[in-house]
Amino acid sequence: MNLIVGGDSVIGSALGMYWSAQGVAFHSSTRKKELESKVRPFIDLENIDLENLNYRYDSVVLCAAVSKLDECEQNPKKTRIINVYNTSKLAERFSNLGAFVLFLSTNQVFDGTLPFRKISDKRGGAVSEYGKQKSDAEDFISSLNSYGILRITKVMHPELSLLVKWRKSLENKEQISAFKDMYFSPVKIEKVIIEIDLIVKNRMIGIFHCSGGEDISYYDFASKYVKSLGYSEGLVNAVLCKKEGARYTSLSSNYHKGL
Hints:
The protein is built from seven helices and twelve strands. The protein has 259 residues and is of the alpha/beta class. The protein folds into two domains: 2-156 and 185-210, Rossmann fold; 161-182 and 215-239, no CATH class. A six-stranded parallel β-sheet has the order 2-1-3-4-5-10, sandwiched between helices. It has a two-stranded parallel sheet with strand order 6-9. Helix 3 (76-96) runs parallel beside helix 4. The protein starts with a strand and ends in a 20-residue tail after the last strand. The mean pLDDT is 92.
């Protein structure tokens, strides 16, 4: 039996749908009391209750986190409690009960000065508060007996708020704006889910990367996106983020055992 912590999240929900289709036995946690059941344990990383978490799972996938960059910057103490302290306590609890723990991390543990960062590259210089928190959580997760760390770049799915916003504007025949000087490495959610399933199924210990194949500006991505929807690329307006230097987000996918 596996457990998805953060079953209401985008990745958690997609993983649950995938495992249901594959016939994998799992529970999926929720932060909504009204949805709590035997198969949907209540886990709130803001106010965690470890005493009632005694079920012995084979594997636990930690999907829950505060991932909005602005929220982490504006509320560093509150988000650190969730993303670092309580996530670590929860991971330790299930690890002590014999579970393999897979922690979902981010490319933002790196400083973004180089593309395709290798798994063997040292972390450090994380630019965002979110990246710093994930890096600190990685330090703890790597001390567990049986763990995996999966660093992921920007996950793309149809209901991504940015894509939804763009589609609404395009339907109204309005221009959309996209940064010409900000880059990201989009990876499809289907690829992420298959990677998670592979790591959990084989209890693969160490660090893993799941990345898009390139660093692309938001403007270039938007131009391709609107074209794929049958709209004119002329509807994309290039704007500047005005941050110093291009930030790379791509990761190399080579496997490295241990930190």
